[in-house]
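Record pair follows.
FIRST:
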Amino acid sequence: MPSTARTPLRITPLPRPGRRVTERRKQRSRKAAEALELALSGAVERGSLDVVLIADDCGMLVSSSRTELDLEMLAAVTPIVARGRAKASIKRNGEQRELSVKSIRVLDETLHVAALGGDASGRALGLMHSVTAARRILE
């Protein structure tokens, strides 16, 4: 019996008069490590955060947004905070900084995405964008 299903028709939207067509992502990379760094850096900018990082379940730094900060110690405590066994007390330049962590499973591996600084809504937004990007890039 022949199939009656049709392939969906995809039409490129027409440009609006007087507006340029712009790419949502300003930069792209085919390399996973670079793409992840670009995505995390974008989340930092959109959420007005200090840094976003991804650590594995052993506390090893997997990736981070562009920063000059040494993130090894923060990555080490991220899984502990994610499990609820500790609350992070972080100061930067004498000011208290909040840390939000979300755990995800990617290719049978547990990863912890952490957002440092900013306000609660900025951290939530940064985490949401970072988790989405990590899944898209790493799967």
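SECOND:
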Amino acid sequence: MTRRRVASSSPSVAYLDSSALVKLIAVEAETAALRRELLRWPRRVSSLLAAIELTRVARRLGPLAVPLAQRVLAGLDLLAIDPIAPAAMQIGSNVLRSLDAIHLATAASITAELGVLITYDRRMLADGQGIGLPMLSPQP
């Protein structure tokens, strides 16, 4: 399921973590603002981890959410986890959770192409800002 590596000469890619992707399959207060922001970023990426997380959430939401999650995932370039593991072990603060560390390390691995990392997780937002990543949580 891992797709092509993103390559670009300028920051043109939006990285979405699982907290953002869930808002695309389950309407929440921030969903409309997120959809508007994504209009600016036709190139979108995430970690292969997001495919697992989003599919698990979709299964909990019910059978109609699963095909929606599949459509959302089809619009992403999914980046492999294995090459990211060493960086994920070291990135961020000690309170950063493991799965969030994988997302941060994956986004950091494409810094040259990264225009924004979209998350709704406060710890990840703070840690991403702390290492200089362009972070955003679109709000209504």
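COMMENT: Confidence is low (pLDDT under 50) at residues 1-5.
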